[in-house]
Design a protein that fits this description.
Mean pLDDT of chain A: 83
Helix content of chain B: 25-40%
Strand order of the largest sheet of chain B: 1-5-4-9
Number of domains of chain B: 1
Shape of chain B: elongated
CATH architecture of chain B: 3-Layer(aba) Sandwich
Strand content of chain B: 25-35%
Order of helices and strands of chain A: EEHH
CATH topology of chain B: Rossmann fold
Number of strands of chain B: 9
Largest sheet of chain A: 2 strands, antiparallel
Radius of gyration of chain B: 27 Å
Largest interface: A-B, 34 and 40 residues
Distance between the termini of chain A: 19 Å
Strand content of chain A: 5-15%
Helix content of chain A: 55-70%
Number of helices of chain A: 2
Low-confidence stretches of chain A: none
CATH class of chain B: Alpha Beta
Oligomer: heterodimer
Largest sheet of chain B: 4 strands, mixed
Radius of gyration of chain A: 16 Å
Order of helices and strands of chain B: HEEEEEHEEEE
Number of strands of chain A: 2
Structural class of chain B: alpha/beta
Low-confidence stretches of chain B: 14-19
Number of domains of chain A: 1
Shape of chain A: elongated
């Protein structure tokens, strides 16, 4: 996942992969549930990073754009 | 009188055909099962910052990842990817993740506007991503 400036295509941040590794040998229901939970945490962290990056950009717009 | 045997024949044929059809449909076909991702996301809404508009692009996905089949891989056959016949996502995973992300960005009020390509508006910022693999690894 990456956030870029639309004008300059400058990369503002790039986020790591979401990897879930401890859900082997479970029913599909359990796998989907585990995926859902991990995805929720991943999105929460990503949204926090996006918010922080954009807030920082308010004080240094020329660098961001 | 001569039409009676012919009529009986016709009725017999009809009964046979009915039996054949009912024979075909008597086996219970497995039912499809659909799964949806509904991540419960908790974010704090920012005090309004004027960060312009952010566009959330659709996540790119290829192959199985772009479809609705739930796929799995056996540890004993590491290179073989298989798909369940009757277990399906409601929508492709990339679409469900995109929707959840947009909803969370809205809730967090990270920008004045959170848009998607459907909105066809200009944005100052673009958030994009890729879904490379979504498969269930079975030992």
């Amino acid at each position: 996942m990456s956030l870029v400036s639309a004008q300059t295509r400058k990369m503002l941040f790039q986020r790591r992969y979401l990897e879930i590794q401890d859900i082997r040998d479970k029913s599909i229901n359990q796998v989907v549930y585990a995926f859902d939970q991990a995805l929720a945490r991943f999105i929460e962290n990503s949204v926090e990073d996006v918010g922080k990056t954009l807030r920082d950009c308010q004080s240094r717009i020329p660098e961001c754009r | 009188m001569s039409s009676c045997p012919r009529q009986a024949n016709r009725i017999l044929t009809l009964i046979c055909a009915t039996l054949a059809f009912s024979g075909c449909s008597s086996g219970r076909s497995p039912q499809d099962r659909f799964y949806r991702l509904v991540p419960e996301i908790h974010v704090q809404a920012n005090s309004k910052v004027s960060a312009g508009t952010i566009m959330v692009s659709h996540l790119s996905s290829r192959g199985f990842t772009g479809g609705r089949r739930i796929v799995f891989r056996n540890k004993s056959h590491q290179f073989r990817v298989q798909r369940y016949a009757y277990e399906l996502w409601v929508e492709p995973p990339a679409t469900m993740i995109h929707d959840a992300l947009v909803k969370a960005l809205h809730a967090a009020a990270v920008a004045d506007y959170v848009i998607t390509p459907v909105d066809r508006a200009n944005a100052e910022w673009v958030l994009s991503g890729s879904l490379f693999r979504a498969e269930y690894l079975i030992d």
